[in-house]
Give the backbone structure.
Amino acid sequence: MPEHGDDQQEYADRLAQDADVLKNGWTATIDEMKAMAAEYEEQGWNAYYVAAGHTATEPPDAGPKGRFGLVHVIPGNYADDFVAAFEAGEFPTYDVFRNEMDGHVFFVTKLLDEPSKNAIFIAGQYELWNAGNLVSHAMDEGEIYTHVQKLDGTVLGSFKHDDPAKFFPHAADFKQHYGAMGDPQSDVSGKAYSAEEVEAMQEQSEE
């Protein structure tokens, strides 16, 4: 049996801690999303909710030309229901509920169409170290987008938001607050989540 040094043990402990943070934060976020949707249903709205299997922070030079924003990947078998909800309204009203835990941001985006009483709730999470370029660009532009797509890259719907700061902690002084982060380009197509993993995470959201 191979022997493990202190550094290896410390690294393994950090991974285990990160896994616990992710699991607990994600579970709490999904519970919050469901509770918000239920509250709107009780008030007579049609509320649709979905938890992303993966969310990417995409600056303009990382994805399709000219596109930037938060890109949520949802399982293919949820696509038809999402498109139906997306096409049911304009959704000009939105809000973001987020929580930061050990460098991870867990958040729910609420989108409302008051005339039709349709509401969409999307849960996602991203890592702060990977968000710097997007935050900088979005704050300069004064806008940001939420994109929802399938794992194969098929875009199912996009929403434009006029207040990027809602999506990021300390958005106005992001890099000053968090220091020099790695900030690599985020690439949805290259993210290491298999279709099976996306499906499994979605099933967890339904429990």
Observations:
- The longest strand covers residues 104-113.
- The first helix runs from residue 6 to 42.
